[in-house]
Amino acid sequence: MLLREVLDALDPGAEFGVVWYGKERHHKNRAGTRKSSPSPHKERVAVPVPPSGIDAATVARARAAISDNVRPAKADGRVWSLTGGVAFCACGRRLVAKRTTSGGSAGRRKVYHYLVCSTYLDSGEATCEHTRCHRAG
Ligand SMILES: [Zn+2]
């Protein structure tokens, strides 16, 4: 996982962190949607990096502080600033991104962006009494 010549060039008395290169494979499925999957451990490359200068306890506290964070939606190349744990349905669940299109031919099709209760996406039907599409704008 670490090239011999890289290992030999390191100062044996110095400390190093490790950044892993190639942890995921990225590909598109038939619909053109990007997917990522973990790559096998033997294909990953360890890259030694200088220490950050931040003690391990501080790093652990910082990681714990953001462990519940949720990445905002990236659907349709938009910035969905209210997803990711900012906007919630009246039932208490998160609002998630929903993209719909009008009917018609591909060139005339209009795209609409909404925020909707996450229960809507789980079942494909409204299961929350408050489920309603809110315009993303
Ligand atoms: Zn709800």
Helix content: 10-25%
- Rg value: 22 Å
End-to-end CA span:
47 Å
Structure classification: alpha+beta
Number of domains as seen in the coordinates:
2
The string of secondary-structure elements, in order, is HEEEEHEEHE
User: Quick one: biggest sheet?
Assistant: 3 strands, antiparallel
**Mean pLDDT over the residues:** 86
Number of strands: 7
Which small compounds were modeled alongside the protein? Answer: zinc ion
Tally of DSSP helical segments: 3
Strand order of the largest sheet: 5-6-7
Which word captures the global form?
Answer: elongated
Proportion of strand residues? 25-35%
Fold and architecture overview:
By secondary structure, the protein is of the alpha+beta class. It folds into 2 domains: 4-65, no CATH class; 75-135, no CATH class. Helix content is 16%, strand content 26%. The chain has 3 helices and 7 strands; from the N terminus they run αββββαββαβ. It has a 3-stranded antiparallel β-sheet. Strand 2 (24-28) and strand 3 form a beta hairpin. The radius of gyration is 22 Å and the shape is elongated. Bound molecules: zinc ion. Residues 89, 91, 93, 117, 119, 128, 130-131 line the site of zinc ion. Zinc ion is lined by residues 89, 91, 93, 117, 119, 128, 130-131.
